[in-house]
Amino acid sequence: MIRIERDVLTRSAKTGLWTRSSETAFYLATAAIPAVRAASAIRDHWKIENTSHYTRDVTMGEDRSRIRCNPGIFARLRSFAFNILKASLRSSLPQDRYRAAIGGVDYLLGLLDIPER
């Protein structure tokens, strides 16, 4: 068992002020590993969470999705669009998403740079 104590900063949407708190997290490992390796694995996990999952939830609106018929297909389409936008980032992801929404599928596919035969 791995125990991590960390400081957390949370911003209030109402006041704009930051509050500091601390939390304790527990992780389970199937084998004894050095603390340096455990810390690296935990950081790698949160890197993926912060760069991919959070962005998909917030920018692409996955958590707000009300699709009930074949949700996996639409999740893959959102992933496809997300990966294209992230690979060809011009300004910020929300701004690029807005441009893609206005331009439609043709704009999004134009970002792929696939040569014509």
Write the layout of secondary structure elements.
Layout: E1 2-11, E2 18-27, H1 35-58, H2 71-87, H3 93-110
Antiparallel strand pairs: 1-2
Helix pairs in contact: 2-3
Structure summary:
The protein has 117 residues and is an alpha+beta fold.
Q: Care to describe what's here?
A:
There is one protein chain. By secondary structure, the protein is α+β, with helices and mostly antiparallel strands. Helices cover 50% and strands 17% of the residues. The chain has helices at 35-58, 71-87, 93-110; strands at residues 2-11, 18-27. Strand 1 (2-11) and strand 2 form a beta hairpin. The radius of gyration is 19 Å and the shape is extended.
State the main characteristics.
117 residues, alpha+beta, two-stranded antiparallel ribbon, 3 helices, 17% strand, extended
H/E element order: EEHHH
- Given the C-alpha coordinates, what overall shape results? extended
Poorly predicted residue ranges: none
With helices defined by DSSP (H or I, 4 residues minimum), what is the helix count? 3
Mean pLDDT: 83
What is the structural class? alpha+beta
Can you list the strand order of the major beta sheet?
A: 1-2
Number of individual domains = 1
Cα radius of gyration in angstroms: 19 Å
Main sheet properties: 2 strands, antiparallel
DSSP helix fraction: 40-55%
Number of strands: 2
